[in-house]
Design brief:
- The protein is mainly α and 468 residues long.
- The chain is built from 19 helices and 2 strands.
- A two-stranded antiparallel ribbon has the order 1-2.
- A hairpin with a 2-residue loop joins β1 and β2.
- The longest helix is centred in the N-terminal third of the chain and has 33 residues.
- It is globular and about 65 Å long.
């Protein structure tokens, strides 16, 4: 059913959407904060390079588990309830990462943070898609990616500010604690705000109908979409639930075995978003730029610039997503990433070892820097926000929680594999930055074919109209 004239309380919808997107902010902050702490971790916790790499990637193990569990548990306990659990995990992880006295305590804290990030990554877009009117859903869901990028940007900015104040992530700063510990503790402020704000927003009306709380759901829908539309919307949601059954994990399975086609498309979107290598820039940006000759301070400043470019790109996506649709943005982003990654491959292939340090000759370093930021812009104007928007709205009501759980698990598993293999490729003779970015470029080209052949447009369609 096409979206009609909006009669609800838009301010209320925007307010509760912004609360949900604080989960995205913490997703971004928690993902990016590790970027500036690597040197401090190695020095303070006596980490070898392999253990350091495991520590950086450890959060992603928790992310995969958190995404897989949260989607299903949200069908049992509610979208809002799982976001509250995620907020508590963010608080405990931020504190635990900062007080860690050994590598295994740190890894345990990061895994806990990963559970929170994984849960927030699927619950925030699911919640927004279920409370947002169809004509605003793309823009409201895209706020999630704005929040993620702002979270990354604030993490990069606070890391840079703390590093500049302390002189190095390894040095002691306030009250005798090393600077890298404060980089993690900054997260306590937004995590606590997220936890408190969640206590004042309503549960998803679609979940309430799943649980039989029809009148409560209708009251929320009246405020969201208007009194004239709410009764019909309740009926549509009830009708969209197969045979009156509550959602189950096995609903993602096709009648003849295997997963339903729409679930495979969701997995493809989730995996390709990672195979293009974006989180190598987020997690190892400082390491990458130091590897081609930039100082620690300059490398962290480049991260700040990349964060600002990312915010600009997501604003562009926010303006376009409900006008031109999800599929055109994905296709344009894939083409742009494929081209800019190819330029980076050529640049990194010219890296030379001079007096024991890796450098890029002539203007190659500048070209690489411009290409890298153009790549970040293309990603964040397309696959960054659109993948989460599409996953939040593409599944029918009956399988939304379970479909998000499956796609979210694969997204974070792919993230884990990319993050774990990048430092290995960086240290392997014959692969290095050239081989790593060559692989990401090939995946970007393949994503063009995937979008053209498999992805369905979901813009301006009611969630009750989605089919598998």
């Amino acid at each position: 059913m096409p979206a009609g004239r909006f009669e609800g309380d838009l301010v209320f919808v925007l307010l509760i959407s912004c609360v949900a997107t604080l989960g995205g902010f913490l997703f971004g902050f928690d993902s990016g904060v590790i970027n500036g702490t690597v040197a401090g971790l190695e020095a303070s916790l006596t980490m070898s390079e392999p253990l350091r790499d495991a520590a950086v990637a450890s959060m992603l193990v928790g992310c995969a588990i958190g995404a897989a569990l949260a989607g299903r548990l949200s069908d049992i306990f509610g979208r809002r309830s799982m976001m509250i659990v995620a907020a508590a995990c963010f608080i405990l992880s931020a504190w635990g990462s900062g007080i860690a006295s050994g590598p295994w305590v740190f890894i345990a804290a990061r895994v806990l943070g990963g559970l929170a990030v994984g849960a927030a990554s699927v619950m925030s877009p699911a919640y927004i898609s279920e409370i947002a009117p169809a004509q605003f859903r793309g823009r409201l869901s895209s706020i999630q990616q704005v929040a993620i990028i702002i979270g990354l940007f604030i993490a990069f900015l606070s890391n840079y500010a703390i590093q500049q104040a302390a002189g190095s992530a390894r040095n002691e700063w306030l009250w005798g604690f090393e600077a890298w510990r404060w980089m993690f503790w900054v997260e306590l402020l937004p995590a606590t705000l997220f936890f408190l704000a969640l206590l004042f927003i309503p549960e998803s009306p679609r979940f309430l109908i799943f649980r039989g709380a029809r009148e409560k759901a209708q009251a929320i829908l009246v405020r969201i979409g208007g009194a004239n539309r709410a009764p019909a919307k309740v009926g549509e949601i009830e009708q969209s639930l197969a045979s009156g059954r509550k959602p189950r994990l096995r609903d993602v399975l096709a009648k003849r075995g295997g997963l339903k086609p729409i679930v495979w498309i969701g997995i493809g979107l989730a995996v390709f978003q990672q195979l293009v290598g974006i989180n190598v820039v987020f997690y190892y940006g400082a390491v990458l730029w130091q590897a081609v000759g930039f100082s620690e301070g300059d490398a962290l400043l480049i991260n700040v610039i990349s964060g600002a470019v990312s915010i600009l790109a997501v604003v562009i996506a926010l303006a376009l997503i409900d006008r031109i649709g999800r599929k055109p943005l994905l296709l344009g982003g894939s083409i742009g990433m494929a081209l800019t990654l190819s330029i980076l491959v050529v640049c990194f292939s010219q890296a030379r070892l001079v007096d024991g340090s890796v450098t890029l000759p002539g203007q190659t370093g500048l070209i690489a820097l411009i290409a890298a930021n153009a790549y970040v812009l293309f990603f964040n104007a397309s696959w960054g926000p659109v993948m989460w928007v599409a996953l939040g709205e593409m599944f029918p009501n009956q399988i939304r929680g379970s479909g998000l759980a499956v796609a979210g698990f694969f997204q974070w598993f792919a993230n884990f594999m990319i993050t774990l293999t990048f430092p290995l490729m960086l240290r392997t003779t014959g692969i290095g930055l050239t081989g790593a970015y060559g692989f990401y470029a090939v995946c970007a080209f393949l994503s063009i074919v995937f979008v053209m052949k498999a992805v369905r447009e979901t813009g301006n369609r009611e969630l009750e109209d989605m089919r598998d």
